Amino acid sequence: MVLGGARSGKSAYAEELAQTLAGPGLVRYVATSHRDTGDQDWEQRVAQHRDRRPETWTTFETAHDLDLDLAEQLRSPTDAVATLVDDLGTWLAVELDAAAAWELPRGTISPQTDALVSSVRGYRGALVLVTPEVGLGVIPETRSGRLFRDEIGALNARLARVCDRVVLVVAGLTMTLKDAPADHACGTEISTRTRGQA
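Now predict its structure.
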């Protein structure tokens, strides 16, 4: 799990890590963001990511194929040695959009986040997840901003429990927050649907 703020270098680090993990094998790259041809700046950012990827990598774009669910993608058999998901912030935004959940109570998309955490916990290959670290500064002015911050923060905490290694990227430098095999059988990961019922 690779955490970092915007423009921290987390994606570039994750790409190098995935290639190292795969060695001469294939890398499956799962892109989660929407393309927006009306936003040239966004398109340039997408192109920068695309241009960095070796031609040998296989790319899947979950936001453009409604049948390509991220949790299912992680359960699907693959010839790839390593899988890289970039990133979970855009995945979360797409899921909130699809559920029209920006004005709904927190936890509305718990089934989707539960399914994702379950898929990550059960994944047995080399998996690299890129996700934004949020909440380091001013509280967002809008409800949607606060909702996103709360949801991605909760998802990051859940995934950090089930990932073997967690790093934080700041200004292109990495700091290891966790480097120990996750205990997949320990049952410490608690569903958001039951957390408030204790």
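Helices lie at 10-22, 40-52, 70-75, 88-98, 110-122, 143-162.
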